[in-house]
Write a structure and sequence with these properties.
It is a single chain. This protein has about 850 residues and is α+β, with helices and mostly antiparallel strands. The chain has four domains: about 1-65 and about 265-400, no CATH class; about 70-255, no CATH class; about 420-460 and about 710-850, no CATH class; about 480-700, no CATH class. It contains 29 helices and 22 strands. Its main location: membrane. Pfam families: FtsX.
């Protein structure tokens, strides 16, 4: 009996398989549309999975490069014997060792930290600083450098070149040592790290550091190790165990920031758009695939009714539909995976602009996850159509007329019969669910496209650039951003020769000069009250406790009544910023009065609430700067493009006076920054002039141009723009595919009905017109919904999204305006083509029910 039951089951499965195959072959048109939908769904899932994984991997790689190494743990100031004990522990996979000597302090290297060190190859490799040309130093006169340092020194990238470095054995001493080495290796520099490495041999390092008496108080001889474990799970627990086992619990180790929980949170926040995109892709994929199978079931409902008459069970009918779905998945998903990965390969370098090279994730789990999500989307989409096929009775199937419910509305007749337009409109109401699904699918893509476009169009390049540069060009002293040795107020980068070149440049429109000097000022009782009140509320003082230097400066100012101050001397176009109400936090700025040299402008803090009194001198107070008194005219916002750069005192009351008054107080000081604007047609020439000066005269001179900032802006906004538009376009394509599928299937499934209409007098022209009107009705209803929803989405949601930051809201529905004629074209062309295909059969053939697909 059991064997008979098994044989019957096999025969049933075989019969279902044969029916499924024949039904599949007889529905080639629907299958092509379904496969296209599955390909699109799998493509987007794959692309989004690969992008999300790539973003996470590249974020980790970026952090590795920023911190300067990719091992799990680093330990500073460790003895050689201690390092050997840790290296011998079974939980340690690899250890690299380095000995620090000094900082290279050549004038050409101002603003760049170059650390002279010895390191083993393992340490150098994990620091992204292993020579790719040549080798690590072996003899005492050899050195290996990155190309960044070579360029700053003006040395060709050739083995054997002579390299001269100036350095100090004791950083607290003024005695410099000059050493000349032979270049034995070089590599591409890490532009994201805070320091470059200058590798010397172990023998040279020992000979230098061992000559220092006793334990050196500086950095010379400092031994550091980097440790790689076998896993990045529970790094701190493993390291604590290693130190406990070796008896070195007094050592302090540093965890690589790439493995910190904060980075995981950042990675999650950066991948949120991808997860949102996956949800939208699932929704769009569900809409079309559900509609395809729903239409397929309703079109073949009589076929399923006949199968039920022959004894097919509900379960077997469901299996038949899921079998067809799996067959379509077998074709569509691999194609979608392939094209999705290829699309991701193109998009990853475009989206990830913070690295020189972007890695594309390609592990098997990405493809398995994408395939699984696409397959689940298809299965979920098939649930309701399968239930409909299983529930239908043979009698219901014979009476089925593709209408979602009964309608008592009568179509009004004209003088020459029923209105073709009204018939087309009535046909849409026959299956309202299908009509609503198609309209929703199309509307979703159009609304998203409009929203992303409006958001991108609202980015304001001028707002962005104002915070970064005041002019077409900004050139600075080489020490202006030297956070290691500090700014030299008597630097020589902006020489008289350069100034003469700029002032004589053909096309020069305006200039602005900036000087600076650090000093100390007495705090008035009013200013002291302002400072205490400002930092005493909203937990501001508590939030600064981790910054020891700032906290010490604050406490010293409050206790002694004196504070560090950076005094800036300004003129020219810088004053235009002080006059701008957007950056004026209190008071007013009068350029004529300010030029008299009797007034000072105080600099506030970066707080958006200008209603509060800033923690500095109040407007109208008198401030004494190195023996000369000034009256506070106004308080301005601390623009990075003006007040940014190296400073010795984190807590400082910054003040601005005219350049002439500054020169009277500090006659020996030289320019810190020079701003200048040129005519539009001379920008390239000005850039060439500065680049040539930088190349031939002073490689340490930083150049910031408006053009370079615009490029940076485009890179920062490119990721969100492309990703959002790509998802929107794909969803819009899914909607159009849904529309095409619905129109084709609706026409083909009603071939008998059309034949009957023609048999009672409807002409081909009238029938064609009715079908075109149906398409136009779809388009009109979709556009009405899209324009309404887009107006709300753009006017409310997008406006709220761009309220802050570098944006100025712009209401625009340009994508809808572009899509409108395209949608109308589809609405006319698709019914026309379908009708031409329908005409291949005669009215009699269609009445007899011969399949035309």
């Amino acid at each position: 009996m059991r064997r008979k039951g098994t044989d019957k089951m096999k025969r049933d499965q075989s019969a279902i398989g044969q029916i499924s195959s024949r039904s599949f072959q007889n529905s080639k048109g629907r299958n092509i549309v379904a496969v296209c939908a599955i390909v699109l769904t799998a493509l987007m899932f794959t692309t989004l999975f690969v992008l999300s994984q790539s973003i996470e991997q590249n974020l980790i790689q970026m952090t590795f490069r920023q911190v300067g190494f990719d091992t799990h743990v680093s330990i500073k100031n460790i003895e050689e014997e201690q390092a050997k004990k840790i290296a011998a522990h079974p939980d340690v996979q690899q250890m690299g060792t380095s000995i620090v000597l000094a900082l290279a302090e050549n004038r050409e290297l101002s603003g760049q930290q170059v650390e002279m060190r010895y390191a083993g190859e393992a340490y150098a490799a994990h620091c992204f600083a292993l020579p790719t040309t040549g080798h690590m130093p072996q003899s005492d006169d050899e050195i290996a450098l990155d190309d960044i340092t070579l360029d700053r020194l003006g040395i060709p990238h050739e083995i054997g070149q002579q390299v001269t470095l100036e350095w100090r054995k004791d950083m607290n001493s003024d005695k410099y040592t000059t050493s000349t080495f032979t270049l034995c290796g070089f590599w591409e520099g890490n532009t994201h790290a805070s320091a470059s490495m200058a590798w010397v041999s172990e023998g040279f390092a020992n000979s230098v550091c061992n000559t220092l008496p006793g334990i050196p108080t500086g950095i010379c001889g400092l031994r550091m190790v980097q440790i790689s474990l076998y896993s990045d799970k529970n790094i701190e627990g493993v390291m604590d165990g290693i130190l406990a086992d070796t008896g070195l619990t007094e050592l302090h180790y540093g965890l690589n920031l790439a493995y910190d929980s904060a980075l995981k949170e950042q990675a999650f926040s950066e991948m949120l758009p991808m997860y949102g995109g996956m949800l939208l892709v699932f929704l769009a994929g569900y809409m079309i695939i559900y509609n395809i199978f729903q239409i397929s079931v309703t079109a073949d409902i009589q076929f399923y009714g006949k199968l039920k008459t022959l004894g097919t069970s509900k379960k077997q009918l469901k299996r038949l539909i899921f079998r067809q779905a799996n067959r379509l998945c077998f074709i569509g998903i691999p194609v979608g995976l392939l094209f999705g990965y290829l699309l991701a390969v193109v998009l990853v370098p475009v989206l990830i602009v913070r690295q020189d090279t972007a890695t594309v994730a390609a592990n098997p789990f990405v493809f398995l996850g994408s395939a699984l999500f696409a397959w689940l989307t298809v299965l979920v989409s098939c649930l309701r159509p399968a239930m409909l096929a299983g529930k239908v009775s043979p009698m219901e199937a014979l009476r089925y007329n593709d209408a979602s419910g009964s309608s008592k509305r009568k179509i009004k007749r004209g003088q020459n019969g029923a209105s073709v337009f009204r018939m087309a409109l009535a046909n849409l109401g026959r299956n309202r669910k299908r009509t609503a699904l198609v309209i929703c699918s199309l509307t979703l893509g159009l609304v998203l496209l409009s929203s992303f476009y409006a958001k991108n169009a609202s980015f304001d390049i001028d707002k962005y650039l104002e915070t970064l540069t005041l002019s077409d060009f900004m050139i600075s002293d080489g020490t202006s951003d030297d956070y290691i040795n500090g700014y030299d107020p008597q630097g020589t980068t902006l020489s008289h020769k350069l100034m003469a070149q700029v002032e004589a440049f053909d096309g020069l429109e305006s200039t602005g000069k900036l000087y600076s000097q650090e000093t100390t000022v007495s705090i008035s009782p009013q200013a002291l009250e302002n400072i205490k009140r400002f930092y005493g509320i909203d937990g501001r003082l508590d939030s600064m406790k981790n910054d020891t230097a700032w906290t010490n400066g604050y406490n010293s100012a409050v206790t002694t009544g004196e504070a560090a101050s950076t005094v800036y001397g300004t003129d020219g176009l810088i004053w235009d910023v002080f006059s701008d109400t957007r950056y004026l936090m209190d008071g007013t700025f009068d350029p004529a009065l300010f030029a008299t040299g009797k007034y000072v402008v105080a600099v506030g803090v970066g707080d958006d609430d200008y209603s509060e009194q800033m923690p500095t001198f109040s407007v109208g107070e008198v401030v004494e700067i190195d023996g000369k008194k000034f009256t506070v005219m106004s308080i301005v916002y601390p623009l990075e493009s003006v007040f940014g750069g190296a400073a010795s005192f984190p807590f400082s009351l910054d003040l601005v006076i005219p350049a002439d008054a500054f020169s009277e107080l500090y006659p020996q000081n030289t320019l810190r920054k020079l701003y200048f604007n040129v005519s539009e047609n001379r920008i390239d020439a000005a850039q060439s002039m500065l680049t040539e000066y930088q190349r031939t005269v002073d490689s340490s001179m930083p150049i910031v141009s408006r053009a370079s900032m615009e490029k940076q802006y485009e890179e920062q906004t490119r990721s969100a723009s492309i990703m959002g538009n790509a998802i929107s376009v794909v969803i819009a394509l899914v909607g159009i595919l849904n529309f095409i599928n619905s129109m084709i299937t609706a026409i083909v499934s009603r071939k008998k009905e059309f034949a009957m209409l023609q048999s009672v007098g409807m002409t081909k022209k009238q029938l064609r017109k009715m079908l075109i009107f149906e398409g136009l009705d779809y388009a009109v209803l979709t556009l009405l919904c899209a324009y309404t929803a887009s107006t709300i989405a753009v006017g409310v949601a997008v406006r709220a999204m761009v309220a802050d930051g570098f944006s100025t809201f712009q209401f625009t529905l340009t994508p809808l305006l572009i899509c409108t004629p395209i949608l109308f074209a589809f609405a006319i062309i698709i019914p026309y083509i379908c009708f031409k295909n329908l005409e291949r059969q005669s009215v009699v053939q269609r009445l007899q029910g011969i399949n035309c697909i």
